[in-house]
Amino acid sequence: MAKWIQYDNGYLNKTPIFQFILLSCLFPLWGAAASLNDVLITQFKSVFDLSDFASALVQSAFYGGYFLISIPASMVIKKTTYKTAILCGLIFYIVGCSLFFPASHMATYTMFLAAVFAIAIGLGFLETASNTYSTMLGPEKYSTLRLNISQTFYPIGAAAGILLGKYLIFEDGQSMAAQIASMTAEEAHAYRLDMLMNTLEPYRVLIIVLLAVLLLFALTKYPSCKPVAPKDAPKAEDPSIGETLRYLVGNHKFKKGIAAEFLYVGMQVAVWSFTIRLALTMDASINERMAANFMVISYACFFVGKFIANFLLARFSTNKVLVAYSVIGCLLVLYVSFIPSFTAVYAAVAISILMGPCWATIYGETLKTVDKKYTATAGAILVMSIIGGAIVPAIQGYVSDMTGSMQFSFIVNFFCFLYVGFYFYQKYRAESKVSQDANTMLAQK
């Protein structure tokens, strides 16, 4: 007998704790894959002798996979269950990790991008299902809070991924660029091949973990959490994709949320993608393994920042908190871009404290603007906004190549933070107007 009761709108009377924790454990799994990309960008730049723009294509392949698979993933959820989509995601994730092995032997950048793309297909399934499922797995009034709690697990995986990259991919000694510069052409070729083989090690570990999670998830009973019509109501057909898209295109609040999510994700990915490169640029005496420490600290800041955000969001207006976060974020980005000192790296790390509440809050609040029958597809399109992570880092890499300054290229993120702040300021003004109107009506009575 189930320990929960599901209401007609898909929400539960209580949160099943074990199932919620197990679902939340999926969040660090895509965190690990995403943070390993930050390592791969630095590794591939030296191994394949790439420009900053070309190295950022790792993120383009990764988030492009998310973009393409989100609608198909939502259709799987619609026809089956959230759990089925999650199992599909885990299987694709395992296949993608396995593709790193033939890619390392072929030793071509394109094959590695294909492997990253395959991983992203699995993660597209996982995120499309898990983000929405987390909001549904309990009482409706705590839906956004549940997603924020689940998202708190993300930086644990991100930190684990960067540590795997630091110790299994990067090596001690001089930086790769410095070592290659002192080698003959034959020695450099052999060294690059050795460095490519290092990229396999984190993915061996991930495959073992993923197989264990796949088995555990398959054996655990989960509620449907899908809206159902009341028994005495006439049965309505599920809306088609075309009908859903027409509805969402006409939903202005939803479109604004999509734009904010697109730019936020792009900014987050861009800052993290180039923090290691920024550290190497600002201090030529450190190597990749040492520079990776700044990403470990970044994810620790992100983790702590989520707890701080949860505390503030529980006590103050969500929109006020995020407007304040955005203003501080804009100032930090300007510091990173223009202060010719290694302290710019610390400012880049500090930005991670401010990133905690953005994704989950924008996602949860935007989903609330959508009628329940359109939730699955709307959630998928919100996940598709992750395509910002494919575009903004590439723009930053292009700016770096054009200006010859990795530090100045961080200015791209200023405009992203600015829009996110404007988005929440608009929501704050609307919130204040509703409150004033309510007070006026009470006074008139």
From TrEMBL:
Entries under SUPFAM superfamilies matching the protein: MFS general substrate transporter
* TM spans (from-to): 20-41, 53-77, 84-101, 107-126, 147-169, 203-222, 262-280, 292-314, 321-338, 344-362, 374-395, 407-425
Which InterPro entries does this UniProt record tie to the protein?
A: Lfuc_symporter_FucP, MFS, MFS_dom, MFS_trans_sf, MFS_TsgA-like
Name recorded for this polypeptide: L-fucose:H+ symporter permease
Question: Which one Pfam family would you cite for this protein?
Answer: MFS_1
Tell me where in this chain the Major facilitator superfamily (MFS) profile domain is found: 17-433
The protein's organism comes out as Mitsuokella multacida DSM 20544
Q: What UniProt keywords apply to this chain's record, in alphabetical order?
A: Cell membrane, Membrane, Transmembrane, Transmembrane helix, Transport
Q: Where in the cell is it found?
A: Cell inner membrane
| NCBIfam families, sorted | fucP
The gene for this chain is fucP
Q: Does the keyword Membrane apply?
A: yes
Give the GO molecular function terms: fucose:proton symporter activity
**Among the entry's GO cellular component annotations, what is one?**
plasma membrane
The reply to whether Cell membrane figures as a keyword in the UniProt entry is: yes
Output the superkingdom of the source species.
Bacteria
Where's it mainly located?
Answer: membrane
Q: What is the protein's membrane topology class? A: Multi-pass membrane protein
